[in-house]
Every structure is written in C-alpha cells, then in structure tokens.
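Hi R.,

Here's the chain you asked about this morning:
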Amino acid sequence: MSDNISIFVKADLSMKEYLRKVLLPSVVLSVIIFVVVSILMRLMYLPLGVRLLLFSIPIILLIYAAVYPYIVADSKKISINSKLPYFITYFAVLSTSEMGRSDLIKVLASDPKLGAIATELKKVYVIVNKLHRSLPEAFRFLARRTPSQVFADFLDRLAYSLDSGVDLKDYLFQEQQTVMDDYQTFYEGALYDLDVFKEIYESIIISVVFMASFIIIGPLITGQDIGRLGLYVFAIILASEIGILMVIKYRMPEDPIWAESREIETERDRKIKRSYIYSGMLVVIMFLIYLLILRPRFNIPEPFVIAMILTPLIYSGKVIANEEKAIFRKDENFAAFIRSLSSSLAASGSSLVMVLKYLSAHDFGSLTEDIRALYRRLAVRVDRERAWDFFIAGTGSWLVGIFSEIFREAIRMGAEPDYVGKVISRNFERLVRLRRKRQQSLASFIGIIYGLTAAFAFALAASFQVAVSINELFGQLQVPSEYIGDVIHIIPPTGMRFIMYIMLALMVLHSLLSALAIKIADGGHLGMSLYYFVILLWIFATGMYLGQKLMAKMMGVGGMEEAAQLILLLVAR
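And the predicted structure, written out as tokens:
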C-alpha cells in the first residue's frame, strides 16, 4: 500500500542527501547558535524577549529539518495536481498519433511544461525501457510512490484499462471527464481553504493588534523601555504578515495568468516598462513638491505624506491591471478559435496556413489581431515554432500559451485535428470557469483586507494617542516626580517619536505584504500589487488619522486632569 511507502520516496529525496544537506547542517548550526547565545548571555545582559528569540532560532532550524521531507512531498503533490489538466490533455491528443506507447511516455517525460508530472513519468520510461517491465506494471509502481492521490488513482485506472485491452485513445477521451472532475475538486478545495483562511487571517490580525495596543500603552504602567517593546511589536506583526503570505503562496494551486517569458518583447512589455519609469519619476516629483512647496505651508500628517508621495505607483499597477483584463478577454475567445481551427483542418484537409488564412477573416474578439499575426508569420515559412512563440507572447496568457503548444505539438506529430480540438477546447473552457470562481473568491478576500487594514490602523493609532495623551497629561502636572513614578512612568519624547516611526514602517510593510498576498492568491502579475499597495496606504493613513483625532478628542473631554490629580493624591497618602 502507498501508506507504507517512505516519505523520502514520495519526496524524491534520498536519505543520504537529506542527512548531508539538510539534517546535519541544521543540527550543527543549531548547536553553534545555542553555544554562542549561552556565551553571550554570560558576557552581557540581554532582555528576556531577545533571549527567547535567540534560543528559538535553533529550535526552528531543528523543526524545519524534521519536517523538510513532508514540505517537499506536499509541494510536489500541489505541483502534480496543478499540472493535471495539461497532462491529461496532452496525453489524450498525442494518443491519436502514430507514436508507440513507450515513445509517447518519453515525449511527456521530457516536456518541461508538465513540471513534477514529467519527473514522475521519467521513472515509468526507465522501468519500461531499462528494466523491461510492462507499462501497466510501471504505472502501478509509480501510483504507490507518488504523493498525489489524484494522480495515483489515474495511474491505477490507466494500468487496469491497459491490462484489459481497452483502446488508449478511447479510454483517455472518456478519462478526461474524471481527471478534470478530480482537478476541479482539488481547485475548489484550495478556494475553500482560502475562504477558511480569511477567518484565520482576521483572527491573527485582531490578536496581533490587541497585543500591539497593549505593548504601546504598557510602558506607561510598567516603566519598560518603549523602544524595545516597539521593536517587539514590529517583529511580531512582520512575522505574522510574512507567515500569512507564505501560507497563501504554498497552498494555492499553480495557475499563473501571465505567459512565461520567451525573450520576445511585445508592446505590452514596453508599455509596462514605461509605466514603471513614469511612476518612479512621478514619485520623485511628488517628493520634491512636498519638500519645496507643501511642507513649508501646510502641516500634513506624516501617514498622508507617505501615501501622497507613493501614490504615483498606482499608475503602473493600473496599467498592468488593464493588460491583465485584456488577457482574460483573450482567454474567453481562445476555445472558440481552437475549435474552429481544428474542425476546419479536419474537414478541409488543407494546410494549417490555409486554414488560418480563412479564419483570420473572421472575428474572434480581442484575439483576432493575434490570429492574423500568426497567419502572416506562418505564411512566411521561416520558423514555425518561433511564429507560435510570438503568438503566445502577443496574447500574454499562460493558458493560451500552454494549450497552443499542446495543439502545435499534437498536429506536428500527426494527431487527429478534430479530436485534438474537442479535447483542448473542452478542458480550456473548464479551466476558464474555475478561474472565474477564483476571482469571485478573491474579491471577498480583498474586501476583508481593506476592512482589516482600516481597523488595524485605527486601533494602533488610538492606542498610541492614549499613550501620548496620558504621557503629556502627567508630564505637565505640578506634582513631585516620586509620586508620578509610583503611578505613571513618563516616556521621553524620543521614545514616542520612535513608536511613530515604527507605526509608519508598519503602514508601508503591511500595505506591501497585503498587496502581494492579493496577487499571489490570484496568480496574477506581481506588478499589479502596486495598485493595491497605494489603496491600502491611503486606507491605513486615513485609519491612523481618524484613530488619533477621535481618541485625542475623547481624552481631552471631561476632567482628565482632575482625575489624574485625584489619583496622585490618593497615592501620596
């Protein structure tokens, strides 16, 4: 049973390599850090928080070394599951060619588009050609050792069908539905995980904000160094944000929107590069305008200054967002194009160039110009593969790119055009529908991030203002310092200023990491995170301003000074 297979086998990790490259270095490094920290503690005084942090590093290293094989196996499983639609499509269309089954496996195993699946199929090819075992035996062998249960079930069904003498072409055509159903279950499960994670994300941020608020006010009561506590706040929030980002990155399926770079510069690429340059120049101009014109005349709160100076970055984000929408529109038209292309090839028997000439006169929406450009390049008959590369680069779409390559390779190897078109268009449309679900799920995630950012900023600023108001109130009282020290520890202005700087740094980092989380969750261009980054900056700045102003007004209402005098008199007695 696959349950009895070692995790090292499923992770394609040898015990020797694991011991030499992961476990032994982690143990040695942990011991060194532990010894160094112990010596450091004897030579100088370290605060408790710093000691705990330093001693936690070797523990984290050891935990990482222990779970490393499981992390690798889980990453491999997600990679396999993410590539299943492309694998089953490619496998099915190639099955109609005149290729032998062994050669078919070799082609699939050497295709980098299939990622971890190609690595797994290399094992099948070696077992069949080097060890001279049958294909069903090789599939069953691999099924027990792959970390993906979906892929293992497919291999078992395929092995049974081959043993039963079922025609591979007919079987794979029927199997499309089963594999795509399994992929849809996996994909929707990841989206459900994102929905669950929204609740966890809210809980984490609320907990961190509560902790940060207590730490900001705490030094007034405890007399601890507010600068050190402020750094603890910064470290805790930063670690939480990065942890959230990593969970999203490694739990969501691999479904990029943009095509891979093919060393072909398109007008889209040039437009994006220009937008980066314009945004950078405008940031510099905004900084100079603030420094030379606005700062001498107006007292603008610092959060708004940062948001205002960085606002031009939204231009780049918006340009990329518009290009991404254009890619989605091209995805919507590709299935109809590939269906028309394959059916025309099958019906007319003409060459691909002649069929494209006929189709280029028809309207395929935003894909029309790309189809006409493809026809012109293929008609020149210089380099067919390069012509398709330009077509893929022009569309900018990952889905269009990978399915175009599958179509091109299948037709080149003599597959049946009509069969190829049916399989590709059907699977392509299903993936587009899943992407729509992903965008809907992401829309609510964005709303939650906006709301939590506003609450986060408001709570931090309100806590800070409470500390400032109490600090100023007791600092201005005409009472001996020994009485004040028993109740409230006055924080020097430099300490309060340092906390403000930390809050401004948190404003930028929280906005940036949250914007990156949004784009990692939807598989889009990371440059578009600049758009969300600027929006989050303004939300954070507004939340901080409202938090400080409202709390300052509340702290100034109703006898705060008299209450402070009363408390001090009671302590003095």
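Residues 190-254+266-325+435-572 form one domain.

Let me know if you need anything else.
M.
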